[in-house]
């Protein structure tokens, strides 16, 4: 009985060795592992045959079986490693993975010149104590015109100037509606700016159907035109340099009274006269004025108790002056040759 089993073990070892050398792939290794080492495998059945032997011969036979088992585990593990190595080499040989190839260079992006300009403007005003607000780009006629004292016959309300959308709505033509939205919700003192996109039916080298503005509003007791002048003069010098000349020209807006436009000495020719400033030495950068009493009325702020000023400036216009750009459309074309210069 014992010798029979010992012979059997030796035969199994020989068969196993030849099977191992003929192994073709990883699947075959897995099959052999199950065949010999599995729960219903050959080693397991040898162990149960051994338990039928008289106890004094069991240790000797058990040792043989364990040696065979250890041998099989070692050989099968070796084969697994070999096939792993082979498949890696195959992948490389097929060219699916060239580990010597240098990595792809991802070019870092940077801020758009309009965004940079807007951030500089906003930084100056937040530094002066103004808070940032936003409003919707699709507006009602009420916020964009009516509450701002823009009369029904005003040309800005014409289909030729304003984009109207479904449901009696429109694309805001300026950031001034944000003034109304903020004054409806908050009581003075109000120090706000509102940056954002605005829309007008206009398109040429200095006008785009969509452009950007920053609105400003300050409302409190005893605010007068002197405050307006000083805040905007400080802004102009911080934005365009300490030596910049600033002038206020009388103007008209339905929502401010009195109203003004602000010019700075031309940043291109320093006031000597050039194509950009149309030989005048001055360039216009914003509109402003004291908040009209009728605007205060529409938001239930008492104009006898409070006064304030508002201003609106065009971001594209300022960016064009700072960077010396003469065509507004360059900002929106995403031509890398243009954008890379900033
Ligand atoms: N909303 C005006 C415009 O778009 C600018 C402005 C804002 C003027 C606030 C006065 C006060 O032209």
Write the layout of secondary structure elements.
Elements (H helix, E strand, L loop, with lengths): L1 H20 L4 H12 L4 H10 L6 H36 L19 H15 L3 E2 L5 E3 H4 L19 E2 L3 E3 L5 H9 L4 E10 L10 E11 L4 H16 L5 E8 L2 E10 L16 E10 L1 H6 L8 E8 H9 L12 H4 L3
The site of phenylalanine has 10 residues, from strand 9 and strand 10.
How would you describe the overall organization of this protein?
- The chain is α+β, with helices and mostly antiparallel strands and 342 residues long.
- It has two domains: 2-93; 113-339, BirA Bifunctional Protein, domain 2, CATH 3.30.930.10.
- Helix content is 41%, strand content 20%.
- It has helices at residues 2-21, 26-37, 42-51, 58-93, 113-127, 141-144, 177-185, 225-240, 293-298, 315-323, 336-339; strands at residues 131-132, 138-140, 164-165, 169-171, 190-199, 210-220, 246-253, 256-265, 282-291, 307-314.
- Strands 1-5-6-10-9-8-7 form a seven-stranded mixed sheet, with helices on both faces. Strands 2-4-3 form a three-stranded antiparallel sheet.
- Helix 5 packs across helix 10 (315-323).
- The termini are far apart.
- The relative contact order is 0.10.
- The mean pLDDT is 92.
- It binds phenylalanine.
Order of helices and strands: HHHHHEEHEEHEEHEEEHEHH
Distance between the termini: 92 Å
Largest sheet: 7 strands, mixed
How does the helix and strand content classify structurally? alpha+beta
Bound molecules: phenylalanine
From the coordinates shown, what is the CATH architecture of the largest domain?
Answer: 2-Layer Sandwich
- pLDDT averaged residue by residue: 92
CATH class of the largest domain: Alpha Beta
Q: What integer value in Å does the Rg equal?
A: 41 Å
Strand content: 15-25%
Task: Work out the count of structural domains.
Answer: 2
- Fraction of residues in H or I helices: 40-55%
């Amino acid at each position: 009985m014992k010798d029979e089993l010992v012979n059997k073990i030796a035969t199994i070892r020989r068969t196993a060795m030849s099977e191992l050398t003929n192994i073709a792939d990883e699947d075959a290794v897995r099959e052999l592992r199950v065949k010999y080492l599995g729960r219903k495998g050959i080693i397991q059945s040898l162990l149960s045959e051994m338990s039928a032997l008289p106890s004094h011969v069991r240790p000797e036979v058990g040792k043989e079986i364990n040696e065979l088992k250890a041998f099989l585990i070692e050989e099968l593990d070796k084969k697994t490693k070999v096939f792993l190595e082979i498949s890696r080499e195959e992948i490389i040989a097929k060219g699916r993975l060239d580990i010597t190839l240098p990595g792809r260079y991802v070019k870092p992006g940077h801020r758009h010149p309009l965004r940079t300009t807007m951030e500089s403007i906003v930084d100056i005003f937040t530094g002066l104590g103004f808070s940032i607000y936003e409003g919707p780009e699709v507006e009602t006629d009420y916020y964009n015109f009516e509450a701002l004292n823009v009369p029904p016959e005003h040309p800005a309300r014409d289909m030729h100037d304003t984009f109207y959308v479904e449901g009696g709505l429109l694309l805001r033509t300026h950031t001034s509606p944000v003034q109304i939205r903020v004054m409806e919700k908050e009581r003075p003192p109000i120090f706000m700016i509102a940056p954002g996109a605005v829309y007008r039916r206009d398109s040429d080298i200095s006008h785009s159907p969509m452009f950007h503005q920053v609105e400003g509003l300050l409302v409190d007791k005893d605010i007068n035109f002197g405050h307006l002048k000083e805040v905007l003069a400080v802004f102009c010098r911080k934005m365009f340099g300490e030596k910049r000349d600033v002038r206020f020209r009388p103007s008209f807006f339905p929502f401010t009274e009195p109203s003004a436009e602000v010019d700075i000495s031309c940043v291109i020719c320093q006031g000597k006269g050039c194509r950009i400033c149309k030989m005048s030495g001055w360039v216009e950068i914003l509109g402003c004025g004291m908040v009209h009493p009728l605007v205060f009325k529409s938001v239930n702020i008492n104009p006898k108790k409070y006064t304030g000023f508002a201003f609106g400036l065009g971001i594209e216009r300022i960016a064009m002056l700072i960077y010396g750009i003469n065509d507004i459309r360059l900002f929106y074309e995403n031509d890398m040759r243009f954008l890379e210069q900033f």
